[in-house]
Amino acid sequence: QVQLVESGGGSVQAGGSLRLSCAASGDLSRSYYMGWFRQVLEEGREGVAVIDSAGSTTYANSVKGRFTISQDNAKNTLHLQMNSLRPEDTAMYYCAASSWLRSPSLTSTWYNYWGQGTQVTVSS
Prior knowledge:
This protein is mostly beta strands. Helices cover about 0% and strands about 50% of the residues. The protein contains no helices and 11 strands. Strands 2, 4, 5, 6, 9, 10 and 11 form a 7-stranded mixed β-sheet that branches. Strands 1-3-8-7 form a 4-stranded antiparallel β-sheet, with no helix packed on it. The protein is globular. The chain starts with a strand and ends with a strand.
């Protein structure tokens, strides 16, 4: 089992920046794909960015050039640096881990561990 706890959400004006963090604990002896997803109300969870154990990254087109996913393996922490934020980035952001994937995916159904989420609100 893996436990994930997000932090760093908040409210910011358009054009501003936020940095999300996700602390991982539990059985981290396996390799995982780690990702950030976001969800607005009753819509499905949208994949934002994924990183593998070697540091290779994949981004959704909507955030390329603005968001950066990174991980600190020594501290078992995942980060999402979000710059040039837009009102449409407003959502609940979730950290997720997959022990099933063998290649990167932004599809939420491939992820079997989830954090509780942290709210990001961007005002215009």
